[in-house]
Amino acid sequence: MERKWWKEGVVYQLYPRSFKDSNGDGIGDLRGVIEKLDYLKELGINIMWLNPVYKSPNDDMGYDISDYRDIMDEFGTMEDFKELLKGLHERDIKLVMDLVVNHSSDEHKWFAESRSSKDSKYRDYYIWRKGKNGQPPNNWGSCFSGSAWQYDEITEEYYLHLFSKKQPDLNWENPEVRKEVYDMMKYWFEMGVDGFRMDVINFISKVPGLPDGPKGEGDLYGNFAPYSMNGPRIHEFMQEMHKEVLSKYDVMTVGECPGVSPELAKDYVGRDRNELNMIFQFELMDIGKGRTKWEEKPWTLGEFKAIMSKWQEELSDDGWNSLYLNNHDQPRLVSRFGNDKEYRVESAKMLATMLHTMHGTPYIYQGEEIGMTNVKYASVNEYKDLEILNAYKELVEGGLMKDEDFMAGVYRMGRDNARTPIQWSNSLNGGFSNGTPWLKVNPNYTEINVEEALKDNNSIFYYYKRLIQLRKENDVIVYGTFKEYYKESESIYCYTRQLEDKKLLVVLNFFEEEVEFLVPEELRGSTRNVLISNYDNVPQDDHIKLRPYEAIVYKI
Ligand code: NOJ
């Protein structure tokens, strides 16, 4: 397998709005990030993925961009950005930016022009259609509730927005749009940026004619997925982008790709495809979701492992995995897959052990390294995420869901769970800001915070630090093959990694009940040294009892 820096690295995802506020306006900013670079260096990460920092009216917290070549006022200036980039490079940390080009903001100058007249040169930068009998052009619903079409009075047509109505979809059929995007990418690469995470990149090619989507029982709108995900020209566009831009630089790319199976993934990340390095898959993130994300569906460890192992196996010698258990759109991993109460520390370390010992590049989402948890605000009015607020209007105010059921869904799955400010210390606002934070700090900051973590040798932080260090020292973790044992177990995840004569055995107890573990037959009697574990005094015997959420990595 070809060796690459982005395979060997560990990524830290940084959501600047909630990281560190340096000027007291309650909003995290670039100078706040600069202040904390030594903290990230201490953790040991070598790649930073920075969520969008471009000019934006922040309808969707920076995912609605009004100028792709400038920095958002709340976050600072271009000078600050350049200083951040320099500070990262001085510490041998690469910078990956967010590329949000399925849509722009409706406040982008292209859209202002586009909307002004059917004759504008920019009209065709977006997707405009006539209505049908006074109704939108098709039945598609948007990801953020309501129709995916917005009527515009100036020219009496509708424009498509798969996300909010302030995020009109760009028309990738238009070669001028593609050229604008490629030029903009080069602008950032020339400045020294090391890669892009590409927002819903598999949405950019739409099936011509934009047919109505399937509508399930009880659904208010049709589903655009079959006609706007992995569309007919997607690979042509990705290959063109590669040829025009990516092939000219040594950069990392990761595409956010909902609705992609491992088979489809190979078309995006396969060796000879000349498209992307890796994608974010959603099969694991969709586990436990009911008809809507606000309704719960029970899941089993068996299902969880089947998804993880399938991706490990399918992309074992062609393509590359991205390993993540949460991000700014998902609940906190310890609340979702672990135990955020009695066993918060043990389960956070267990999940981290899995993340850092699989085949692929691990992504740590800010706050994960200190075991930050989900949050529960009393009322929907305390939330800021438009996905939550729009869904509340549509479902609760529309009489389709009870307030308490919806709020239970928000506590479980809402995106603001991951967006509460970083808890730096137990002082006012968790040390995040001297002003009023844009989103309330999780009240558990008095116990869970960076200051505490740095004082305690046994903290989650230092465990992450060791895991990151182990990846640097053991190429078997990066390049070794993956083999699973005890697939049918509903309590233990067990696998080996092997590179030539180097072999690791990973054993993870996913629950708080103790469970017996017998070393797989072919490895019994072998000499095993503990490389890392979340408990002390790990026995060397073939037959052991795993403690709650115990994780052990043996070197064989
Ligand atoms: C995925 C991003 O991660 C999410 O935060 C955003 O709302 C949508 N794409 C739309 O850009």
Automatic annotation (TrEMBL):
Alphabetically ordered keywords of this record: Cytoplasm, Glycosidase, Hydrolase
Family: Belongs to the glycosyl hydrolase 13 family.
Domain of life: Bacteria
Single GO MF annotation: alpha-amylase activity
GO CC annotations, alphabetized: cytoplasm
Compartment(s) where it occurs, according to its Swiss-Prot or TrEMBL record: Cytoplasm
Residue intervals of the Glycosyl hydrolase family 13 catalytic domain: 13-419
Protein name in the entry: Oligo-1,6-glucosidase
InterPro entries listed in its UniProt record: GH, GH13_cat_dom, Glyco_hydro_b, O16G_dom_2, SusG-like_C
GO biological process terms held by the UniProt record: oligosaccharide catabolic process
Pfam families per UniProt: Alpha-amylase, SusG_C
Species the sequence originates in: Clostridium fungisolvens
